[in-house]
Amino acid sequence: MTNGWNGLWRIALAAGLLAMLAACGSLPPARERPAEHAAPVDASTTLAKIAAASTPPGEHSGFRLMPLGVYSLDARVQLARRAQRSLVVQYYQFENDATGRLLMRALREAAGRGVKVRLLVDDLYTARSQQPLLALSTVPNVEVRLFNPFCCGREGGLLSRFAASPFDVVRLNHRMHNKLFVADGVMAVVGGRNIADEYFVLSEAQNFIDMDALVVGKVVPRLESIFDAYWNSEQVWPVAEIVRGEGGRMPTADDFDAWIGMTAPPPKIELPSVDLLGYGPISEELDAGRMGLLWGEARAIADPPTKPATMSAEEAIATSVTMQVWSLMMDARVQVDLTSPYLVPGERGMAAFEDLAKRKVKLTLLTNSLAANDEPLVHTGYVRYRERLLKGGADLYELSPERTVAGKRFGTFGKSLGRLHSKTAAIDKRWIFIGSMNLDPRSASQNTELGVVADSPQLAREMLRVINISKLQNSYRLRLAKDTGRLQWLTNDGEKEVILTSEPESGFFQRFYNMLIAPLVPEMLL
After folding, report:
1. Is the Cα torsion angle 102, 107, 108, 113 positive or negative in sign?
2. β-strands 417-420, 497-500: how paired?
3. Taking each helix axis from N to C terminus, what angle separates 98-112 and 253-260, rounded to the nearest 10 degrees?
4. 208 near 419, Cβ under 8 Å?
5. pLDDT, tens digit, for every residue of 7-61?
6. Of 405, 375, 385, 338, which Cα lies nearest the Cα of 487?
7. How many CB atoms lie within 10 A of CB 238?
8. Verdict on whether the full-model pTM lies above 0.90
């Protein structure tokens, strides 16, 4: 799911047309709340002892990449079950589905042990989860807050919410796209996954290839301080000040327990013995009291929660996570390997890519094909630059849903549609970025993003291994035909190379619609 729903302009238009029929309103007055900050790390907790036992002398931050969805979900659950002091949880999307309920259950159980739980969720996609979130907030030791909430029209979906806020579209265009999970201040999960079935290859309709990392060490306190800045910001309201219980009745902790099924045994996550990097489930190492991690110097980067409300558009872009990643890429000397589900570089980005080409820096890009893209309008923005990228010497790959499902390296997709959602970069086989940022205008100028940059050749090697599996086994390679200059998509059928000359795995009407709509979509909305 793109970081800001590229159909905003259509929703806003519909909202404007319905505004005369809708009951408009406003957010409740902001109340003075004492600032809350993470408590100092308690070295006596189980997780703190494991982190200390796993840390070599003088090392900075340790990482375990998690390209496999079920491993990544299990890591969050295992950390929640072992936490003894605190859990801070921050997500763009937190669905009321099997995955969301499993994690909410783990948070509720932790709170029952006396763990302080703080959960911050962006309000864009809370239509189905707002009642469980409200009920969870009544559990002792749990606080739930919403980022940049909608005031009214909450009983329906996005259309009704925007219809009730026709004069507030500019504010509501600003979303918190961050993803973060921190346990006891010593172990964190960062990356691209939201909390919903499709991000962990558990959906019957569509599933995403994505990437998270388990992180320990010196970068974790900075991640927790970033969370605190959001938690205490003016853009955040307690869920109980925004959401009303169904039928006018405030739900209780008992209601939450009934909805989540707390009396039944917790659902089991079926885990393979190893993932595609050869690692086993994280629980085995946690139980042993020591983890094998890859180490390096790391820094956490994040946009301020006020972006872009308190700054100009140019300032928002100049100081953004996007520009910090661009700066890292522009320092490359040998190669840049990048994955982004939504790839809209813009003229500024194209100038940067062309500069890399002039300096003989090899550029490899992996993104979604039209058939794989869950936001087809974003594909129109990408198409504007596709031929220029190839002419500039970039190696360009587009994810194939069919090959992804057939490959099974990233999980068992069944009959679902395979898509790319990973936001990663490897620079000069030394630096990596992993986080929530897409390479598109919205990440740069509108939404807040979070990620981690690490200096570790060993970690970069593993990142490249995952990228190479995706591009070589799950994707089409693009080129321009030598005789006609037309686009070609290359794949193989197991015996010989196959050359396609139109957007693969997509229907005529899908291609025609995108061709028709492409000139009409402003790039800044993508």
Report:
1. positive
2. unpaired
3. 140
4. yes
5. 544 444 444 444 444 445 788 887 788 999 999 999 999 999 999 999 999 889 9
6. 385
7. 17
8. yes
Specify the pairing of strand 450-455 against strand 362-368: unpaired
- Please check whether residue 212 is in contact with residue 51, taking contact to mean a CB–CB distance below 8 angstroms: no
Instruction: Give how far Cα 207 sits from Cα of 112, 140, 289, 377, Å.
Output: 33, 35, 33, 19
Instruction: Check if the beta carbon of residue 273 is closer than 8 Å to that of residue 34.
Output: no
Determine phi and psi for 120, rounding to 5 degrees.
Answer: -120, 125
Instruction: Say if residues 175 and 303 touch (Cβ distance below 8 Å).
Output: no
215 near 452, Cβ under 8 Å? yes
Return the number of other C-beta atoms located less than 10 Å from residue 246's C-beta: 13
Containing 236, the helix (H) or strand (E) segment is: strand 236-238
User: Residue 291 CB: number of other CB atoms within 10 A?
Assistant: 19
Q: 285 and 47 in contact (C-beta within 8 Å)?
A: no
- Compute the CA torsion angle 392, 394, 399, 404 (nearest 10 deg): 160
Contact 299, 222 (CB under 8 A): yes
Q: What are phi and psi of 480, to 5 degrees?
A: -105, 130
Residue 334, Cβ neighbours under 10 Å: how many?
A: 12
pLDDT at position 10 is 47
CA 404, CA 413: separation in Å to the nearest integer? 8
Across-strand partners of 434? 424, 452
The CA distance from 490 to 226, in Å, is 43
Catalytic site positions: 177, 179, 184, 421, 423, 428
Cis peptide before 308 (omega within 30 of 0): yes
